[in-house]
Structures are given as structure tokens and as C-alpha cells.
């Protein structure tokens, strides 16, 4: 599947030359400088999200002298930016070096001066529409919104957002995040609105809020932040989340209980996440080395093992470097052919509508 039409970017030769100063070191020089710093501080990277377990492992195998300091694995995108703001003058272990946030949060962080530019050595193979032309943020992976369903408790598996309004799903449906702060949950609300025919952006955000108001009013919505534990325990038998998280949960639970993953028939919303380096990173060279690892063939394939489509996916496939068994393990390509990639303007408009309207429209306080 191609990533096109969802984000407009114009890259001039002058801008590329200016930003190119951010990648002056050779990889060996960068590794030496990073090892001298001795630490990399990450935030909001659960090891079962996108196979970050494998990403961390392969990074440590290559650079054993760099200690990984993992902050708040379950932080939201908004909390990641707040962690940078709160630690601008702090070079201690609570200051993140790198962030992995929803698409809308990349330009916001740039506008606030919270991130710094860096172009990885594989920069040219990242689609132009998926990166900031000056190198401040760059797409890392994408997936589509789906339902993870505990089929021990749900006999009639819902196939669409419209199905979720059936009374048989009373006390069953949850989001995998707080829609006032979590990118995943914010876009789940937009997906619900798009399923009702609204255009991506503010209209879909507002329509999605109405959908969740109905879901909440009828008692189908469970106001807790759902995950693999709540799904397995039966607290939230139906979880709306990215397909890669749902598929990883299915594999982790290994049939206990059985989990079915559904891409809803009434909408296929794709979501892109982006990487960036904190402008106040205590370990800037380790941060750059981390980015080199993430955007190498090896790092991209590790994400793919976690069912996330890495941003360099087309390049990897065209060069024949993706193991066939890994391609065979992915969901059918047809599930992604109708995916809609919202523009950054649409993502921002939806975020504003959802974050500002959730409490007044839906009125459900989503908690851990």
C-alpha cells in the first residue's frame, strides 16, 4: 500500500542543504560519541507495542555500552511532550532524549521548539509526505484502527462501528487510551465519526463524539484504559485499538482467551506515528544513534515483526529484504487497500474537536 495524499510536503534544495548539517557525523563517530554519553532515555515505548522488545534487544546487541533508561512506557503523546517541557533544564534520568508520538504532535512539538532536527542516513527512502522537510520529525510506522475481541465472552463478533451500538455489547466496549490525551484513542473517535459518513477532521471528530455519547448513554462503553490484561480478564471484552496492538495481544495470549481481530467494515482509518529528538536531550548522540537504528533495515523489520508497517516498507519490499515468512504472517493485504490516511490538517482538527469536546459531549472520565 502506498502512503500518498495524506500529508503535503514541499522539499526545496535549499532547505535540504540547511537541514543536512544535522547528519555530519559518520556512523562510527556517532556510535563512539553515544557510547561516551553512556545512556539513552526513552519514553512511552511499551515493549509489546510494535515489537519494541525486538527493537531494544537489537540496539543493545549492537551497542552494549549504552544503558537504556525507559520512562513511563504507557505515557500518552501529550504526556511525552509534557515530559520535555518539564525537564528543559534537567539533564538527569527523567529527561527524555527521544519521543514516539502521533502525527499531530510532531508539528506541535516543532512549533514549540521542543525537538531538534536530524536526518538519518536512510532519509531519502522515507516518503517525502511522511517527514518534516527540515528534519524535525519523521514518520516511523503506521497501522489501521481495529477491534480486539475476546471470543470467550463475545459470541457474535462485531464487524463494524455500527454494530457496537447493539445492546448485546452492554458493558463491553473500551478504548485503549484516554481520548483527551492518547493519540490512539483520539483517532479511534475520528474513525467512529468517519464510519457515520463524516469527512476526516473536525466533522468526523464531532460525529465520533456523538457516537461515543450514544455508546456511553446506553451502557455499552466502559470508561477505563483498556489493554491486554483487561481484555483477557473480561473487564473490556472489546477493545478499539491499532491493529498491530490487537494482533500482538492475540499472539501473546495464545488462545487463552482466544482473540479475534477485526478491521471494521464501515471504515479503515490509518494512523501514522512519528519520531523526534528532544531539543533538550541529555544524550543527543545516543538519540541520533537510536534513530539510525530505527530507520535501518534491521530496525524497520523489527517493527514489522510487531505487525506495524514501517515507514520504509515499500523500499524494503522492493529491495527484497523482508523475510518471506514475515510477509506471510501479516494480515491479508486487502484489509489495508481501502485505508484512509488523513492529512495533518485533518488530524489536527480532529484532535482539537475530540480533546476539547469529550468531557462536555460524552462525559465519561476514562481512567486507568
From TrEMBL:
<dbReference type="GO" id="GO:0030976">
    <property type="term" value="F:thiamine pyrophosphate binding"/>
</dbReference>
<protein>
    <submittedName>
        <fullName>ABC-type Fe3+ transport system, periplasmic component</fullName>
    </submittedName>
</protein>
<dbReference type="GO" id="GO:0030288">
    <property type="term" value="C:outer membrane-bounded periplasmic space"/>
</dbReference>
<dbReference type="GO" id="GO:0015888">
    <property type="term" value="P:thiamine transport"/>
</dbReference>
<feature type="signal peptide">
    <location>
        <begin position="1"/>
        <end position="24"/>
    </location>
</feature>
<dbReference type="GO" id="GO:0030975">
    <property type="term" value="F:thiamine binding"/>
</dbReference>
<keyword id="KW-0732">Signal</keyword>
<dbReference type="Pfam" id="PF13343">
    <property type="entry name" value="SBP_bac_6"/>
</dbReference>
